[in-house]
Amino acid sequence: MNDEAGVRALFAKLADAWSRGDGAAYGECFTDDATYVAWVGTIYRGGKDIGRTHQVLFDTFLKNTKIVGQDEPEIRFYGQDAAVVTTRGDVGKKAKAPSKVQTTVVVRQDGEWKIAAFQNTKRHSILETISFRFQPGIRPAA
Length: 142
Description:
- This protein is 32% helix and 35% strand.
- It is α+β, with helices and mostly antiparallel strands.
- The two termini are 25 Å apart.
């Protein structure tokens, strides 16, 4: 049986930590050896470092922001203890259309869901539209 509710609860916990500007709680959502690729291409490793660096961001550039405009996550399970989650979302102080796409690998460790890998990519919708117009064969089927 897939634990979709448990995975969704992890993402709710992550969003709550972000909204509170709590880097330590944010980092606790990740495994000790997690890989986090920020949308600018920076790679962070491990929940503690992810939390530490996010605290710096929460105290400065991302102060008083929250995860906004997030689409319903697409969750695909690979066994009972692993899933790939795809979302579109953004961060800000108020709701807006999502400008980024995230791919997250979650694993269940000791009964608790954690993020093992996270990739955040800035979406370039204009380039995507142009590409599809000139090369319609590259449009995703789904």
